[in-house]
Design brief:
single chain; 256 residues; alpha/beta; 2 domains; seven-stranded parallel beta sheet; 8 helices; binds nicotinamide-adenine-dinucleotide; Sc_DH/Rdtase_CS; 3-hydroxybutyrate dehydrogenase activity; 3-hydroxybutyrate dehydrogenase; 3-OHbutyrate_DH; SDR
């Protein structure tokens, strides 16, 4: 029987890239995200790769909706074998002006939702003695940058939670790992490039070179497919001993 994966935030960016590679490899996919064409994306990929797909636009700010999202995955696909906590948002501001509502929203979506989704998936994974939880953290889960107080806090939190889940999951063949990418060219980052270009009066190319990729030794965006292939390895049946780890795909940023 094919395995099923729930990927939060999979109707855009990194999540969509991960979903596509998992579908190519025969996984049934529960798509999730707020994009208006989410259902269409799910059905097109399902048809293209001949796998079962579902779609939900559950709001990750709502813990009950996250529980329902996990139950819907089991109802529609028959099980939840792999959970990829990928959805996330960003907001950049000096701490003194950082709006409290944005701080709380980032902590809720980028960190608390990882806890609620893992908790909801737990009984299913424990019962079937198989589970793979993959958290998309960030290089900001192990390094800081100024003006990103909420994001850096949430992403560090996710790395900590990853380790706890790995320890608790070990007796049940539930593994948990975090992937920590550097900059990836997705809508989340394209918006930042535009904002920074305006703020610093630079061209978008100058922003990419002088600001965004400044801390990466390799001056290239991290390809989405590289992240997706890493997730595929972590989800594999044979990957029982890879757990509690953070995998940095950051062009050498954290080597310094
Ligand atoms: P993206 O903006 O392309 O996609 C984010 C997804 O999350 C979308 O599908 C969106 O609908 C969903 N989402 C946002 N708020 C939600 C909410 N309240 N309820 C339900 N869904 C919600 O972003 P991306 O760049 O693909 O980022 C994906 C993950 O990768 C995030 O966790 C991000 O922090 C992380 N990341 C991104 C980069 C990068 O450079 N792009 C680098 C490191 C880590």
């Amino acid at each position: 029987m094919s395995k099923s994966v729930l990927i939060t935030g999979s109707t855009s960016g990194i999540g969509l890239g991960i979903a596509t590679i998992f579908a190519k490899n025969g996984y049934d996919i529960m798509f999730h995200g707020l994009e208006a064409n989410g259902a269409e994306i799910a059905s097109e990929i399902g048809k293209k790769y001949k796998v079962k797909t579902g779609y939900s636009n559950a709001n990750l700010l709502d813990s009950a909706a996250i529980g329902q999202l996990v139950e819907d995955t089991v109802l529609q696909l028959g099980s939840i074998d792999v959970l990829i906590n990928n959805a996330g948002i960003q907001y950049v501001s000096p701490i003194e002006d950082f709006p409290n509502e944005m701080y709380e929203k980032i902590i809720a979506i980028n960190m608390n939702a990882v806890f609620y989704a893992g908790k909801a998936a737990w009984k299913h994974m424990k019962e079937q003695k198989f589970g793979r939880i993959i958290n998309i953290s960030s290089v900001h889960g192990i390094r800081a940058s100024e003006f990103k107080s909420a994001y850096v806090t949430a992403k560090h939190g996710v790395v900590g939670m990853t380790k706890v889940i790995a320890l608790e999951g070990a007796p049940y063949n539930i593994t948990c790992n975090a992937i920590c990418p550097g900059y990836v060219k997705t809508p989340l980052v394209e918006n930042q490039i535009k904002d920074q270009a305006k703020a610093h009066k630079l061209s978008e190319d100058e922003v990419i070179e002088k600001i965004m990729l400044k801390k990466q030794a390799v001056k290239e965006f991290i390809p989405i497919d590289t992240i997706a292939e890493m997730a595929l390895l972590l989800a594999a049946e044979h990957a029982t001993t890879i757990t509690g780890s953070t995998f940095t795909l950051d062009g050498g940023w954290s080597a310094q």
